[in-house]
Amino acid sequence: MTDCKEGHINLPRISIVGGGIGGLSAALALQHFGYRVVIFEQARELREIGAGVIISPNAMHALNFLGVGERVANEAGPAEALVTRHFQTGAVLKIRTADYAERFGAGYHQVHRVDLHAALASAVRCNDPDCVFVGHCFEDLTQDSEQVVARFTNGKTFKSDVCREPLLQYCKERVTMLGDAAHPMTPFLGQGACIAIEDAMVLARAFAAASTFAQAFSMYENTRKGRANGVQLASRRQADEIQGATPRGANPGTGAMERGLYAYNPVTVPLTRASETHSTIN
User: Most Cβ neighbours (<10 Å): which of 18, 105, 247, 280?
Assistant: First the structure.
């Protein structure tokens, strides 16, 4: 864990509801900037299930910055080319190759969710072995000007200064959200995990740059909303293309790289204040 920076917000208690890829990425990024976090996971053990995920250069920038990129790359399988096939016939529609590291400054990897989750969990627990609480299924919360009180179905409560949980908007007073809780992502651009990791990196940077939690949440939402919501909508449009729901019939559509998604770097992207505008993804 790094030392607190000048201008560091005095928040001794930050709670994160959900110990998935997004929650662990947020925890690790906040730890990097000197914050203490606690993570509440409803499962009886902290683990991931599922299949493989794509970690493209935009997300690898964050993982490299947080010190887990090398482990993720070593766990990943080789990705020499991306092949798009017709969903019914299996015919090859498109083959894409690229020197990702040279072009975007970071690699492109295909990794099992379990391996990515394990890398993040290990790094978080290395910083603070006692920060994860399993068997805590979120029920509801209340908040006032001083704190957030989260309640769980096991009857336990926890007080913190700020919290992450599923809401209908990114930020509300002392509570914010990220990843699929903020913008559920279809898989057709391979960006679900990547966008959650981007969210986490930008959220932590906002906390490091702001003087109050309200300012941090504002910068986070204003920086991320256009990007994340734009990718969410683009993924839906991509689904229509590759599943043949457009007049063109089934076609490769426009992939994440062609849309410019890999050029985004959450470690260096300028933090956006409320008066500034957002960009969208075509």
Answer: 18
